[in-house]
Amino acid sequence: MIGIAGAGAFGTALAVALATDGRQVRLWARDAAAREAMRLSRSAPKLPGIILPEGVEIRDNVTDLAESGAVLLAMPMQAMRGFLASTPEILSADLVACSKGIDLTTLQGPAEVMAEAGAKGARAVLTGPSFAADIARGLPTALTLACDGERAETQQHLLSTASLRLYRTDDVVGAQLGGALKNVIAIAAGLVMGAGLGDSARAALITRGYAEMGRLAASLGARPETLAGLSGLGDLILTCTSAQSRNFSHGMALGQGRAAPVATVEGVATARAAVRLAEARGVDMPVTAMVARLVNHEINLGDAVRELMSRPLKQE
């Protein structure tokens, strides 16, 4: 039995993939009306055309998830701390965070938030290049499961399916930072494309963004090969090159001078948190800092580009 707290697109997609592969899944949505609609229609509002398999059971009581072999926390990063504080019953289960971000209040990643909340079971982070629609449709997807405990291999086998391949790592810091920081660079990539600056500019932006992701991760003890893997480079490539990415689409809308789509965009809060974290660690992150200023409306795109291009010349 697998529990999933959060029935947005990603949580529901994981429920569909796991149940299609024969797992029994308990799925909980925060909104009672949404739960009832999903139970009656067996459809997923945020995944058009996807039907919930019989193995997906919609639960009204979130504490029922505590009886599962693992509970997946499929919610925005900024909501996780409050959710765990209000739902202490699930802290005894193995927890797997599916959030990609940095908590704005504590500057912690998902693993540290779970630990501070008093999680007693295994604490893992599921991250990597993936769109919910692809997972729900059974398209081949590879993700990273980061866990430094003895339960890592058990969770890897529990959550892998015929179409969802999980690679495990014990570098939790590197995996969760890769997943968080790539969202910031994706906003920047969207800005570049939305403003019509071209593919060459986007390639340069992604490369320099990846370099600063590595600098911050290394300062916090992450291994370089983790950032070069699925949770870093793999996810960065996906989110910086596809309009399916909410972060990329958010940046593109800003670059075009349009109102950004109404959706959870983890990179906005992460940019703000990453700037504070970088300053505390003495790490230079010019792209991230510029994204933070842009989303805070402290600078316009033209001035931002001029500032980045006029930085002192140096060796790569």
From TrEMBL:
Residues 2-150 form the Glycerol-3-phosphate dehydrogenase NAD-dependent N-terminal domain. Coiled coil: none annotated. This is Glycerol-3-phosphate dehydrogenase [NAD(P)+]. InterPro entries: 6-PGluconate_DH-like_C_sf, 6PGD_dom2, G3P_DH_NAD-dep, G3P_DH_NAD-dep_C, G3P_DH_NAD-dep_N, NAD(P)-bd_dom_sf. Its main location: cytoplasm. NADPH binds at residues 10, 30, 100, 132, 246, 265-266. Pathway: Membrane lipid metabolism; glycerophospholipid metabolism. SUPFAM superfamilies: 6-phosphogluconate dehydrogenase C-terminal domain-like, NAD(P)-binding Rossmann-fold domains. Substrate binds at residues 100, 246-247. It is an enzyme of class 1 (oxidoreductase). Its EC number is 1.1.1.94. It comes from Pseudogemmobacter humi.
